[in-house]
Amino acid sequence: MTTAQNLTGKVAFVTGGARGIGLETVRGLAKLGATVVIGARDAQKGNEVAQQFKQDGLNVESIKIDVNVHEDNVAAYQYFDKNYGKLDILINNAGILLDQENVSIEVINRTSTIPLNIVRDTFDANFFAQIDLTQLLLPLLLKSDAGRIVNLSSVLGSLTLHADSKSPIYSIKTFAYNASKTALNAFTIHLAAELKGTSIKVNSVHPGWVRTRLGGGAADIDEVEGSRTSILAATLPEDGPSGSFFYLDDTLPW
């Protein structure tokens, strides 16, 4: 899959960009020439990370945002509208896993007993927040000549693979997390269809099994490798896919 490698003049926003996959996504986009804004719940942490990037000669800023808070999302719109008048790349990277500590330890299927508040909190952060922020920022993305929306999903959101007892993820039934990513994939499909004919591309990506607080220490790739698919989707050329679900060059089943 080919990408556009020169992002000079482009403005990108990465939620959850102060650590993990998000941080490496920020680094990768900035190295390609983009102005990248970190969205961080911890304002001090976000500013510290942005300053570190600036010392490396990268054009990185940070704003405080809790994507679960509508007023924060409105403030993000106002920030980009005032300072740039557009947004070229939105990476909905922020997300949570509440079913258990991480997916590295043995997964126990608790679908019949999982507290409803865990399901609701997971959907708030992994699904409803993404819709709210994307809807608010869409007018600015429409002002870009090549808008890109990247929804950080997971292969664990694939209903096809979860229904196949022979698939490698069959036993990983973290219901709240998995279902929230399935729902996010539905948002990708529907929004991409609505925006067909515009310059915006909307895709879901699986980062791989990454060594993060969510993925755990037993995961098979590091955060730099885990950022590659997000960067790929953010830099797709005009003839690239929209409404797709992929990991690097591999299309994943819904």
Protein model, in words:
The structure is a single chain. This protein is of the alpha/beta class and 254 residues long. It has one domain (11-251): NAD(P)-binding Rossmann-like Domain (Rossmann fold). The protein contains 8 helices and 8 strands. An 8-stranded mixed sheet has the order 3-2-1-4-5-6-7-8, sandwiched between helices. Helix 3 (70-83) runs parallel beside helix 4 (116-141) and helix 4 (116-141) runs parallel beside helix 6 (175-194). The longest helix is centred in the middle third of the chain and has 26 residues, at 116-141. The radius of gyration is 17 Å and the shape is globular.
Offer a few descriptive terms.
NAD(P)-bd_dom_sf, NADP, SDR_fam, 254 residues, Rossmann fold, Short-chain dehydrogenase, alpha/beta, 8 helices, 8-stranded mixed β-sheet, oxidoreductase, single chain
Q: In the CATH hierarchy, what is the architecture at level 2?
A: 3-Layer(aba) Sandwich
Rg over CA atoms, rounded to whole Å, is 17 Å
Number of helical regions: 8
Approximate helicity band: 25-40%
Q: Would you identify the regions where 5 or more consecutive residues have pLDDT less than 50? A: 215-219
Distance between the termini: 19 Å
Could you report the average pLDDT, rounded to the nearest whole number? 92
Strand fraction equals: 5-15%
Shape: globular
> What can be said about the biggest beta sheet?
8 strands, mixed
Element pattern in H and E: EHEHEHEHEHHEHHEE
How many strand units? Answer: 8
Widest sheet, order of strands: 3-2-1-4-5-6-7-8
Strand-pairing-aware structural class: alpha/beta
CATH topology (level 3) name? Rossmann fold
Number of domains: 1
Protein name: Short-chain dehydrogenase
Keywords: NADP, Oxidoreductase
Organism: Cohnella abietis
InterPro entries: NAD(P)-bd_dom_sf, Sc_DH/Rdtase_CS, SDR_fam
